[in-house]
UniProtKB/TrEMBL annotation:
Pathway: Amino-acid biosynthesis; L-leucine biosynthesis; L-leucine from 3-methyl-2-oxobutanoate: step 1/4. Belongs to the alpha-IPM synthase/homocitrate synthase family. LeuA type 1 subfamily. GO terms for biological process: L-leucine biosynthetic process. The keyword Transmembrane helix does not apply. This is 2-isopropylmalate synthase. One of its GO terms (molecular function) is 2-isopropylmalate synthase activity. The keyword Amino-acid biosynthesis applies. Its EC number is 2.3.3.13. Keywords: Amino-acid biosynthesis, Branched-chain amino acid biosynthesis, Leucine biosynthesis, Manganese, Transferase.
Length: 388
């Protein structure tokens, strides 16, 4: 039987922490609904102790979004854990995600703690978190730059205290695929834990390797990957959910695992996030960029018209680009435009619909059939006021 890799989505926590991506409580709820539709396993909805607004947003998501486990981040302190437990109380399934820095740099310069004190904090924090829920995740922040023997001690201590997910973050995006593969294999062989405990990868993209590193971690034994839609997150971002899910799906022969994510909801989630944060992914962004399924050059167009597989390794429909459903051309009306726009994550009503329709008619008069790539460009331009 093929192993399933769980997807923890941290768009609303690590993603929201990054400059330019802050969201209103309503925006967070909307995004959480899109993540629910995507069927991610865990939604990390925020960091409850960071303030009342975040805490309220987590509670609202816990109350209203059905399906995924809802999680809150917490430092390894009683105050943070209490805030997380409280905010998550309305969730039918909840997770507290406790973290503490374990690398020499974090111990010496940030925490001013000895190795033994960090270990004591891990034990007491996880035990306290277990008073609120039996689903507790532990993260050894900056795990990649932590001494291997000490990392094994920290993760074993967390597992003994009741953590069921052991996360090994590459907090600064420093590792390489070979290195992280080897680390996960080493941890799988050395960390003392029960058979239900799973390892998790959380990779940042500072060197552009977050997705490759996450796939290598899976090969090394990770069975949860932490991702964010459109790859948003601290600095250069987190592992992009859409890239990881589609790599696993498209190259199941190479990775031999699956996820439970409904890939046909990827485009809608990506567009929802872009609308909420007013930031679109780059045109050439893999999977969700406006060019990802567009074919402009004559040679490519000719090939695709004969057989799509000449230049396409995935079908647009696989990510929710429903190209065939309704052909949009100069005879199409407002309803057809609004329906296609909605499938792409754009809500068009009232004056917005009128303006978009006028722009659409102009393009349709010129080109006949308005394909998905062109429509995405047009809708984005309407939204941002900038040519795409
Ligand atoms: O990058 C990181 O180390 C984190 C942890 C808090 C999981 O975001
Ligand atoms: Zn992170």
């Amino acid at each position: 039987m093929t192993d399933t890799v769980r997807i923890l989505d941290t768009t609303l926590r690590d993603g929201e922490q990054a400059p330019g991506f802050s969201m209103t409580p309503d925006g967070k709820l909307r995004m959480a609904r899109a993540l629910g539709a995507l069927k991610v396993d865990v939604i990390e909805a925020g960091f409850a102790a960071s303030g009342q607004r975040d805490s309220d947003a987590i509670s609202e998501i816990a109350r209203q979004v059905e399906g995924p486990v809802i999680a809150s981040l917490a430092r390894a302190t009683r105050g943070d854990i209490f805030a997380a437990g409280n905010a998550l109380a309305p969730a039918p399934r909840r997770r507290i995600h406790v973290f503490i820095g374990t690398s020499p740099l974090h111990r010496e310069f940030k925490l001013h703690m000895s190795r033994e004190t960090v270990l004591e904090n891990i034990r007491s924090a996880i035990a306290y978190a277990r008073e609120f829920t039996d689903d507790v995740e532990f993260s050894a922040e900056d795990a990649i730059r932590t001494e291997r023997d000490y990392l094994v001690e920290c993760l074993s201590a967390a597992a003994a205290a009741g953590a069921t997910t052991l996360n090994v973050p590459d907090t600064v995006g420093y590792t390489t695929p070979d290195e992280i593969f080897d680390l996960f294999r080493f941890l799988s062989n050395h960390v003392d834990r029960s058979s239900e405990t799973i390892f998790s990868a959380h990779n940042h993209d500072d060197l552009g390797m977050a997705v490759a590193n996450s796939l290598a971690a899976i090969r090394g034994g990770a069975r949860q990957v932490e991702c964010a839609v459109n790859g948003i997150g601290e600095r250069a971002g987190n592992c992009a959910l859409e890239d990881l899910v589609m790599a696993i799906r498209t190259r199941s022969d190479a990775f031999g695992v699956r996820t439970d994510v409904d890939s046909t909801k990827i485009m809608a989630a990506s567009r929802t996030l872009a609308q909420i944060t007013n930031t679109r992914p780059a045109r050439n962004k893999s999977i969700v960029g406006a060019n990802a399924f567009a074919h402009e050059s004559g040679i490519h167009q000719h090939g695709v018209l004969q057989n799509r597989e000449t230049y396409e390794i995935m079908k647009p429909e696989d990510i929710g680009l429903t190209t065939e459903a309704i052909v949009l051309g100069k005879h199409s009306g407002r309803h057809a435009l609004a329906a296609r726009a909605e499938a792409l994550g754009f809500v068009l009503q009232g004056e917005k619909l009128e303006k978009a329709f006028a722009a659409f008619r102009e393009v349709a008069d010129e080109v006949g059939i308005v394909d998905t790539a062109r429509l995405l460009g047009l809708l984005s331009e309407q939204e941002t006021g900038r040519p795409q």
